[in-house]
Every structure is written in C-alpha cells, then in structure tokens.
Model the fold of this input.
Amino acid sequence: MKKKEMVEREYCDECNKPEYIDKCLSCGIEHCYNCKKKVGKVYPYSLWAGGSREAYFCSRCIENPQSHAKELLTAYRQMQEMGNQYKAICADFDKRAEELEQRINELRKENKYIPKWQKE
Ligand SMILES: [Zn+2]
Ligand SMILES: [Zn+2]
Done:
C-alpha cells in the first residue's frame, strides 16, 4: 500500500537548509547548528551540565534583547562568566600545585636525612 504523507520540516532562518534548529529565546528566530555559531551564541545552563537547558540567543538579541528575555539573558551571561572564572581559578590552582610538587621533589633530593633506600 502506498500512502502520501505530509512531512513538516524545520528550516534554518539563516541558511535556509532543512536542519535541526534552535530558537533564539528572545526573538524566536530559528538557526541550525552551524549558523548558531556564526550568528549567535549558546549559553551554558550550569557549570557542569549541558543539554536541554542551554540557551540560544541570536547576535541581535545579545546586543539588544527583547524585554521579556532581558533578565534571562543576563542570568545566562552571568553563568557563563562564572564558568570562565571557574576555569581560570582551576588552571591557576593546578599550576600552583604543580610548582609545589616540583619544589617538594627538589627539597627531597637535597634532604640528607632520608634513608638511602628511599632515594632514587
Ligand atoms: Zn543555518
Ligand atoms: Zn533573537
């Protein structure tokens, strides 16, 4: 049996291709994965998790969000800023721990009171 089916497809508002799209949470414009990177930005929902609560905003709305989305965009931007700070702190912390590790190694080499069998 043959049947004709109507299939609804989503098209990207930027490149006009039938792709999986995301809506800008401010103006509702729909962009595909590739265009999202070019004409907008995806914001993280938390420091750890990605997924469905991530937010997409188009460049125009990032500059000038519609009033209903202003607070939401601000919150998402703050979350992203926290993520950046967190990464910077971690990198700094790692670096300091590594330096300390090296220092300990040097000190242990100089330490004459370590029994011989423990020396390398
Ligand atoms: Zn596109
Ligand atoms: Zn928008």
